[in-house]
Amino acid sequence: MKRTATPDSPALFDLVDTGPDFSFELEAKRKGLWPVAGTDEAGRGPLAGPVVAAAVILDPDNIPKGMDDSKKLSRQKRESLFVQIMETSIVSVASSGPGLIDSMNILRASLDAMRRAVLGLEIPPALVLADGRDRPPGITCEAKAVIKGDSRSLSIAAASIIAKVTRDRMMERAGVVHTSYGFEGHAGYGTPAHLRAIESHGPCELHRMSFRPLKQG
């Protein structure tokens, strides 16, 4: 994220999204904090399914090109980058299911999945860059919360891609088991079709009963 002058702007500088880079990681390496892991999650907003977190340590000499916040990429691009990241990086994935989300709340369940993803890495990182405003609790190294990190750090962007593709695949499989809800199409989000299915069939075991409109009272 850089500030760039624009001739027609009333301000001297506008904030321009230039995409993620490796500057956070290289700065950490200069300080003796290496390796660096990025972590992110997918699936905070849906009415059903798990929240999935990934932690990724990139190989600085073999970083896949074209990475960005997973939401900005096409499905085809995400799938391609998923394969490249898995082949070149150290990756760990963890999830929190609907029961844990309902008992802990979605923020805590998301951070707990991120914590477990980090702890599952084959090589312990010296620093974790976490997307958002919160650092995962309970990890044994330094951690830095990076707002909009998936658009600023390549390690976090990689984690966002792994988490998103993994969750989408999980929800596609859920659609095969729970055929009345169309999970393979909307991934558990509150689309009109999903809401109609809940009204017709009631919730299933994958629904988050602490989320409106499922929450009672």
Note down, in words, how this protein is organized:
The protein has 217 residues and is α/β, with parallel strands linked by helices. It contains seven helices and seven strands; from the N terminus they run ββαββαβααββααα. The strands form two sheets. A five-stranded mixed beta sheet has the order 5-4-3-6-7, sandwiched between helices. The protein has a two-stranded antiparallel sheet with strand order 1-2. β3 and β4 form a beta hairpin. The chain is globular, with a radius of gyration of 19 Å. 44% of the residues are buried. Residues 1-15 have low confidence and may be disordered.
How would you summarize this macromolecular structure in one to three sentences?
With 217 residues, the chain is α/β, with parallel strands linked by helices.
